[in-house]
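#dry-run=false #mode=assembly
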Amino acid sequence: MTAGGSTTTETGSVPVSATRTYEERAFGFWIYLMSDAIIFALLFATYVVMLGNTAGGPTGRELFSLERAGAETALLLLSSTTFGFASVALAASDRPRVLQWLAVTAALGLGFLFLELDEFSGMIAQEAGPDRSGFLSAFFALVGTHGLHVSVGILWILVMMTQVLVKGLTRPVASRLVRLGLFWHFLDIIWVAIFSIVYLPGVI
Amino acid sequence: MDIFGRLTIEAFPFYSAIAATGAAVTVLGALSVIAVITYLRAWRVVLLDWVSSLDHKKIGIMYVMLALVMLMRGFIDAAMMRSQQAIASGNDGYLPADHFDQIFTSHGTIMIFFMAMPFLSGLINHIMPQQIGSRDVAFPFMNAISLWLTAAGAGLVLISLVIGKFSTAGWTGYPPYSGAEYNPGVGVDYWLWAVLIAGAGSTMSGINFLVTILKCRAPGMQLFRMPLFTWTVFVTSILMIFAFPALTVAGGLLALDRTFGMHFFTNAMGGNMMNYINLFWLWGHPEVYILILPAFGVFSEVVATFSQKRLFGYISLVLATMAIGILSFSVWLHHFFTMGSSADVNSFFGIMTTIIAVPTGVKVFDWLLTMYRGRIIFKPPMLYTIGFLVTFVIGGLSGVLLALPPVDYVMHNTTFLVAHFHNMIIPGVLFGYLAGYMFWFPKAFGFKLNEKWGTWSFWCWIIGFYLAFMPLYVLGLMGMPRRMEHYDIAAWQPHLVVAAAGAFIIFLGIICLGVQLAVSIRDRRQALDLSGDPWNGRSLEWATSSPPAPYNFATLPHVQDIDAFWDMKQRGVAHQRPGRYVDIILPKNTFIAAFIGGAGFVFGFAMVWHIWWLAIVSLVAIALAIIVRAFDDDTDTIMPATEVKELEDARFAQLAKAPRNEMADDPGFAGGSVPEGST
Amino acid sequence: MDASGLPVERSIRPYLTGLGLAFILTAIPFALVATHALTRLTTLVIIAVAAILQILVHFRFFLHIGFRSTPWENLVAMAFAAILIVFMVGGTLWIMFDLHYRMMV
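#status=ok
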């Protein structure tokens, strides 16, 4: 057994590298996104299974608007691009541009939400709400879950804008923005699947 | 809008003596916990050191405490069912049908979601980070949220005994019976929200454990040097991450049906009820592997330690675990062979189900070969392991039988099935976690459990198990369906009486567990674990003190081989004083995680009783709590090196007092590595 | 996406490229559906192919996922999720359409 008397202590030396934490958090968030992908995949599967379950009610062809879907797609795609611009500004430590592009992204997202809520309320008003048929329940659940995620994303953008204003572009703030970026791009990918599985085939 | 939603005074169970008793027991239980804490003047400790703790070890202990409490609650359900069926031949017995249905529903729900899942989460939480040489899990705050969300779910199940009723739709909650049309009351909602809220916690735990294993291992701890328990945790966490979303969807869609009148699973208006069954079992099958794999991990550790021999076939055990993991996503239809699928579909899933038995067989042989030519020490964890090896194989065989669709057509939903899955869960899951509990108890608390009572608990459990469930195989072959509140075939009764006797012996086993704990606490100063290595262990958790310091390892170990701690002991470097100590970062305590759990409970309660304003308020509260936490960049505290040195000096002083080798007194001791620092 | 969890991309070029490619891969299926230019089956196939390609565009140009730059754990997680999605969605569709055929559900 070694003699214990020579052990020294080093107060003030913080050993664990903080960057390892950001790496862990980004990876953990990526794994969460994989689990979210499963949720969406199963909602898609449910939708496809229930395509024909219109219970004598309206079908996709009667309800979906290609123009609206196109506009929503443009808004979301643009918002992914503008978030990218925010990320570049972040890497360059350009605080005003980060805030500016985050604001544009949030605005585009809000535009998307507005169109979607307009679509939903229109459908509900014409007795084509989620309680009309299994098909419509599946539609509202799938598209609505995506919309809910977008809403959370917008809230998160606003929270991050506040953090950038209050704390500046610190490393914790930057790492949160990286995760928000993963989330936001993931939602655009889900939307590609939505217009490809729900809106386009529904209108053919 | 009514401020109390649909909650009225009629929700209180004054309508039935049995329900009132259940409510009284629950309320008295809660009050006695409060009374004991008050009597011991322990509120400061409970709140400041435990409820607000983010320490994986404390979180692990709290999970196991929840599991053991819910084991008793779920067992009471079982005892009531067994006694009812033992007497209800040609009469109605003592339990009205509505009660009986609630009881079998809560029995399954509690045992799976609130006994087995917390039990495994607790053992994993405490031990896995130590086994990989880490100071904590990757996300301590999220870890606490998982615990408190699980507790919130358990709370919903418990409060359903006091306010309202529980579901009668079985632990699987199949629609349309569980839909709003046939079950508009609160029972199914209690079940649904308890399961969804706890499920969110489990998904987060899966993410946490996976990232911890992949990113927080000590230097030299390569993946193929990790202990088997950690490997099973790794695959289990993958299953948790990818299977729980299916439950979220199944339950979420059912909730949409019940709350907003949608038509996912309704009889008419375009509902597709089979999709619920499909989605539920997409989760449900991986879930049973989530339950069993960590138990397999425990058995691997125990069998090697108490055969005093390196685990046989490490690589094959790892590969078998991985195979089980991936295959577990390919068999789920075997839970509904009889629901009308074509022969092609049934055959595919039947074949996959028979295939998945193979890797488990590989594991059984590996464990047997570990014991072969070992020097077996028959301490309680090893008894539970040997009991498992014999009994679980029987259950596996009945599973392979059921895997054949034509056979399943005869046995589905009979007591044969009930016997099969209890034959997997009790000797498999429960014995595994009881073995883990007894194996790692000294590590967690610093003193050993009484072995005499542990041995008696084992014999009661295994004898009780055989008596309680072997008759159910016979009854299933005789045609008895499951979940029967009364029956008219007198020939069934003798078997059910035997089964009830078995349940009574299991009850004695539970008493033994309780006495074991009480006696061990009373006698703890005579059974102190001074070295931290009471069983001459092989993996790194035995290198820490018992209980471990908050930081686990003052200096991270450098791993060079499988069985890292055994290797260190062999090389004579096991308990070396480091040249210097450094400051250590630890997470600060916070009440926010428990607050989120509490708000989750309130949200669930509000959704059950349709108190919409409260549901919204609690969701907003959760969001605000998360945002507040997100603004906090000061979530860690630093333990200065001087304090680390004090703790470590105390540890080395304790090591010096430890007996030469705590296993050396055992007649079966084979000799071997002596822990450093014990001369 | 690299291992650090911190922002690394310093050029807006990949985002503009991604935007352009995604726009094309969106415009084509939308135009085909709007004009009914091809048969239903062909259109569906083109929609599917365009969607898969666009998702890959998103991975490459927005998420910066690359075989060299992205840690193997992230790639394996994606591959595993993809495999499971095939099992789960494929299995669901097989089972549910088989049941629909046999049992009218």
